[in-house]
TrEMBL record:
<dbReference type="Pfam" id="PF02515">
    <property type="entry name" value="CoA_transf_3"/>
</dbReference>
<dbReference type="InterPro" id="IPR003673">
    <property type="entry name" value="CoA-Trfase_fam_III"/>
</dbReference>
<dbReference type="GO" id="GO:0003824">
    <property type="term" value="F:catalytic activity"/>
</dbReference>
<protein>
    <recommendedName>
        <fullName>Alpha-methylacyl-CoA racemase</fullName>
    </recommendedName>
</protein>
<dbReference type="InterPro" id="IPR044855">
    <property type="entry name" value="CoA-Trfase_III_dom3_sf"/>
</dbReference>
<dbReference type="InterPro" id="IPR050509">
    <property type="entry name" value="CoA-transferase_III"/>
</dbReference>
<comment type="similarity">
    <text>Belongs to the CoA-transferase III family.</text>
</comment>
<dbReference type="InterPro" id="IPR023606">
    <property type="entry name" value="CoA-Trfase_III_dom_1_sf"/>
</dbReference>
């Protein structure tokens, strides 16, 4: 695999940082997640291929062990708000060389994934937030489809995963490529407000009065639900079909098949659209009503068969279980992408467990780190792996 031999330390966090680590793990990196004592892994489904060690970084020996792990790593993923790791004594200045001072690991790629811009207002950059807050400040939420009263948000995809985790993994890979030239690591700063703006470059750069895509109020443009030929329609069974025939040749294929199918099924209407009506915006309300009523005459799978193997750009909206059944990997877990032909990603087919219990690999990782048995014992007894494990060890010793 492409990243074989790469050592990554990932501090446990929410979705964005685990996803960045997952991308690296899928391509061969050895990813070690540092969990807090009493941590729960029930919400982390992005742990495939990773290992876990519990370390109490507020404990002197636990902190020293974390520092030792990072000193021997290629990459660190920091998921915390700005200043958290610095206050612990694990900031980039500890590891990178600076002003004649030797750091512990100048080759370290130190990736920091925050919510708000680090260079922004002091009060804002230290506040908590989530995807919906980040895309709200990015400018893109105000452009998304929804109702006339308010826009809808696309789950937590735009900021958490696209603008956060994926761009963080990209930044790490870019820094690793540069390290091959300079021999030095560097800090990679990613924030999800800026990341969401970057992955939304096309709509944001077209958010002006002259744009052919977004010059009108939200919900009335070509790509935000305004165009009847770019939308989702309900079928007779309550399921949906997606329609995306933007180009005239694709719209022609769609409307010809759609009209013919409705005629065959005996549907009579006062108005039948032609190919030429696609961009006649005065007719869009009639065209939308026509398409809506047409799709409602038959179930989704019927329409899927009508447009199968055509250029109509009309395909069924699949539920997650349905989409998994046609996945070429044969797994319910989304497969790594992109796929490299010579060094493909590692992937557990068949739906492997998405749970990585904190501390599962404590002993294994500490042995790899070179800690002899007596030091490992002292680490436990000092509470470096958490008070629960320390108390268990002490109780066992009394017996």
């Amino acid at each position: 695999m492409a990243l074989n031999g790469l050592k990554v330390i990932e501090f446990a966090g929410l979705a964005p940082a685990p996803f960045a680590g997952l991308v690296l793990a899928h391509h061969g990196a050895s990813v070690t997640r540092i969990d807090r004592p009493s941590a729960s892994s029930t919400n982390d489904a992005l742990c495939e291929g990773k290992r876990s060690i519990i370390l109490d970084t507020k404990n002197t020996m636990g902190l020293a062990t974390a520092k030792r792990l990072i000193a021997g790593a290629d990459v660190l993923i920091d998921p915390f708000r700005p200043g958290v790791l610095e206050r612990l004594g694990l900031g980039p200045e500890v590891f990178h060389d600076s002003e004649g001072k030797k750091g512990l690991n100048d080759k370290l790629v130190y990736a920091r994934l925050a919510g708000y811009p680090r260079e922004g207002e002091q009060m804002l950059r230290t506040l908590p937030g989530h995807d919906i807050n980040y895309i709200a400040l990015s400018g893109i939420l105000s452009m998304l489809p929804g109702t006339t009263e308010k826009p809808s948000f696309p789950l937590n995809l735009l900021a958490d995963f696209a603008g956060g985790g994926l761009l963080c993994a990209t930044g790490i890979l870019l820094a690793l490529i540069e390290r091959e030239k300079s021999g030095r690591g560097q800090v990679v700063n990613v924030d999800m407000v800026s990341g969401a703006r970057y992955v939304s470059s096309f709509p944001l750069l077209n958010a002006n009065d002259t744009s052919p895509y977004f010059s009108k109020p939200r919900g009335s443009n070509t790509l935000d639900g305004g165009a009847p030929f770019y939308d989702v329609y309900t079928c007779s069974d309550g399921k949906w079909m997606s329609l995306g025939c933007l180009e005239p040749q694709f719209f022609s294929t769609f409307i010809d098949r759609f009209n013919a199918t409705l005629r065959i099924n005996g549907m009579k209407t006062e108005w039948t659209p032609t190919r030429a009506k696609q961009f006649t915006q005065d007719d869009w309300p009639k065209l939308r009503k026509y398409i809506e009523e047409g799709f409602k005459t038959m179930p989704r799978d019927y329409w899927a068969d009508v447009f199968q193997d055509s250029d109509a750009c009309a395909v069924p909206v699949l539920l997650p279980a349905e989409a998994a059944s046609i996945d070429p990997t044969g797994s319910h877990r989304p497969a790594p992408h992109p796929q490299l032909c010579r060094t493909p990603a590692s992937f557990q087919r068949g739906g492997s467990s998405t749970i990585l219990e904190p501390g599962t690999h404590n002993e294994e990782i500490l042995i790899e780190l070179g800690l002899p048995a007596e030091e490992r014992k002292q680490l436990v007894l000092a509470g470096g792996l958490g008070v629960e494990l320390r108390d268990k060890a002490r109780s066992k010793a009394k017996l």
